[in-house]
């Protein structure tokens, strides 16, 4: 029938080290108390010293701090939403009162209205399964491969 299925695998390169603390603080303030958000980001904005060496961290997370895992999961959720878009992310997750089971959709119409059929992120690796119709595949090949 001319349909095309594509599995894309990619990686967020050094996402743990590239988290901007100012942006992170603004995002955390949306869901947490302002004092707690300031505390969580201030713990990463410190001077580290070892013997005669010193480093002031102002960019990225320090591994092993108390809230580092929560912060990384929250930041990963923000990256997921940016990558998928709000409408497809809500299609994949389902409504809040009745979330979708893993790899299921509410209906076939919801599943087929967008090329992204599966999305999976494990820490910093991202897997996206696309399903293109014959016309979409032909258009993509003409636009990007010729």
Model description:
The protein is of the alpha+beta class. 42% of the residues lie in helices and 21% in strands. The protein contains six helices and five strands, in the order E-H-H-E-E-H-H-H-E-E-H. A three-stranded antiparallel β-sheet has the order 1-5-4. A two-stranded antiparallel sheet has the order 2-3. A hairpin with a 2-residue loop joins strand 4 and strand 5. Helix 1 runs antiparallel to helix 2 (34-42) and helix 3 (68-84) packs across helix 4 (86-93). The protein starts with a strand and ends with a helix. The mean pLDDT is 91.
SSE layout and pairings?
Blueprint: E1 4-11, H1 21-31, H2 34-42, E2 47-50, E3 53-56, H3 68-84, H4 86-93, H5 108-112, E4 116-122, E5 125-132, H6 134-144
Antiparallel strand pairs: 1-5, 2-3, 4-5
Question: Keywords for this structure?
Answer:
elongated; two-stranded antiparallel sheet; 3-stranded antiparallel beta sheet; 6 helices; 42% helix; alpha+beta; single chain; 146 residues
């Amino acid at each position: 029938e001319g349909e095309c299925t594509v599995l894309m695998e990619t990686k967020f390169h050094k996402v743990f080290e590239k988290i901007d603390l100012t942006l992170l603080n603004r995002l955390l303030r949306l869901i947490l108390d302002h004092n707690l958000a300031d505390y969580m980001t201030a713990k990463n904005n410190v001077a580290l010293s070892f013997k005669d060496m010193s480093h002031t961290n102002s960019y990225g997370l320090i591994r092993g701090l108390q809230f580092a895992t929560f912060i990384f999961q929250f930041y990963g959720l923000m990256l997921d939403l940016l990558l998928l878009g709000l409408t497809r992310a809500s299609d994949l997750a389902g409504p809040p009162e009745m979330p979708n089971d893993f790899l299921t959709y509410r209906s076939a119409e919801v599943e087929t209205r967008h090329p992204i059929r599966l999305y999976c992120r494990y820490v910093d690796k991202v897997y996206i399964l696309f399903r293109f119709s014959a016309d979409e595949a032909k258009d993509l090949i003409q636009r990007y491969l010729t």
